[in-house]
Amino acid sequence: LRHWVNNLENNWDDAIAEVGRGRAWVWRLYMAGCAVAFERGQIQLNQVVAVHEGRGHGDLPLRQDW
User: Fold this and answer.
1) Contact yes or no for 57/41 (Cβ under 8 A)
2) Tens of pLDDT along 7-63?
3) Contact of 42 with 30, CB cutoff 8 Å
4) Nearest-CA neighbor of 1 among 21, 28, 41, 40?
5) What does the CA dihedral 26, 22, 10, 36 come to, rounded to 10 degrees?
6) Residue 53, Cα to own-chain centre: how many angstroms?
């Protein structure tokens, strides 16, 4: 997230031209706030992968610890 925030900052004028000042500010605030919350251990990210029985990748591990 820190890299994304930096990328947004480095391309701020382009972001405003693309989506407008209000939305660009929301992106900046959201990503910066989430970066701080991740660093403090206040939030985390989970992913659920579901497959239909008999189709897809049923051989995926039940859990992946990064």
Assistant:
1) no
2) 999 999 999 999 999 999 999 999 999 999 999 999 988 877 777 777 666 666 666
3) no
4) 28
5) -20
6) 29
Cα separation, 33 vs 5, in Å, equals 10
**Buried b / exposed e across 29-47, counting CB within 10 Å, b at 16+?**
eebbebeeeeeeeeeeeee
How many angstroms separate the CA atoms of 2 and 35, rounded? Answer: 6
Cβ 31 vs Cβ 1: under 8 Å: yes
Token reading at 9: 């900052």
Please list the active-site residues.
Answer: 34
How distant, in Å, are the alpha carbons of 16, 28, 46, 56, 62 from that of 4? 15, 9, 19, 32, 30
Q: Which pair of structure tokens corresponds to residue 17?
A: 């031209």
- CA 56 vs CA 37, 49, 51: distances in Å: 35, 11, 6
